[in-house]
Design goal:
Layout (H helix, E strand, L loop, with lengths): L12 H6 L7 E6 L2 E5 L5 E8 L5 E9 L4 H16 L4 H17 L2 H14 L4 H19 L9 H13 L3 H20 L32 H18 L14
Antiparallel strand pairs: 1-2, 2-3, 3-4
Helix pairs in contact: 4-5, 4-7, 5-6, 6-7
């Protein structure tokens, strides 16, 4: 519909949906300083005209249509007017909120873990090592701690993570993750992002990692006796079978 056909205000939902674009952008008053804006490409949005604390008039974008319905836009306009009445510029308030949110997201464990990982990559770690690091971060650590602020993570959070890993018998993985957690928090402390390392004492309650099993082997001084015993064993087996004694190449010692 054309804006010349608008019959009433506030603007009806059918009007909002059907208003046609024109060659230049235009605004239609919804009421009490709230305007509905239509651009030539058909994009529609809500704007509030308000007077800043310094007495100058300005515009405050509330959001796009149809994500923001008429009822929602009017409520947001009322909230902005309450800020204006208290002496706060709603545009500056919105900027401050966005910056605070960005600062908070930069202070999450996930951001600190990514910083740690990138430092490891820059140190020239092998591709397979980096793949393993990324794996235990993505599979175990980030699902448990990633969205939390560094300053909100407790020792109990870290201990719970360790216990879950140990419960499935992944003791070697648990050992690697303990090291990673300590390093991630240490870097964060050095960067001024937090003051404490809640993973610093995990080793005190960690299950012992299994010792590497050594395969049986012979030292060089033990080889002559082994070869003599092998020769006798092979000769004896051949005699018992009624066959000429045979021996392996190792036994042919001059």
């Amino acid at each position: 519909m054309k804006r010349s056909e608008i019959k009433r205000r506030p603007l009806a939902d059918t009007t909002l949906a059907s208003l046609e674009p024109e060659a230049t952008a235009y605004r239609e008053l919804d009421g009490d300083g709230l305007y509905f804006r239509v651009k030539p490409n058909g994009t529609k949005s809500w704007e509030l005209r308000y007077k800043k604390p310094d007495g100058k008039w300005s515009w405050h974008g509330l959001g796009g249509y149809s994500d923001l319905s008429g009822a929602m836009a009017r409520e947001k306009a009322r909230e902005a007017k309450r800020l204006v009445a208290s002496g706060t510029d709603p545009v500056q308030h919105k900027v401050a909120q966005r910056e605070a949110k960005e600062a908070a997201s930069a202070n999450t464990f996930a951001a600190a873990a990514e910083y740690w990982f990138q430092r490891k990559a820059q140190d020239g770690r092998a591709a397979n090592t980096l793949r393993l690091m990324r794996g235990y971060l993505g599979n175990d650590v980030l699902p448990a701690l990633g969205d939390k602020l560094l300053t909100e993570i407790t020792r109990r959070d870290c201990a719970d993570l360790q216990e879950r890993i140990e419960a499935r018998g992944a003791l070697n993985t648990g050992d690697k993750i303990r090291v990673a957690l300590r390093q991630i928090f240490s870097q964060a402390i050095a960067r001024g992002l937090c003051e404490n390392n809640p993973a610093s004492e995990l080793g005190a309650i960690a299950a012992p990692t299994p010792k590497a099993k050594q395969y049986p082997h012979l030292l060089e001084p033990e080889l002559p006796a082994f070869l003599q015993a092998l020769r006798r064993s092979t000769s004896l087996a051949g005699a018992m079978d009624g066959q000429p004694a045979r021996c392996c190449a190792l036994c042919r010692v001059d």
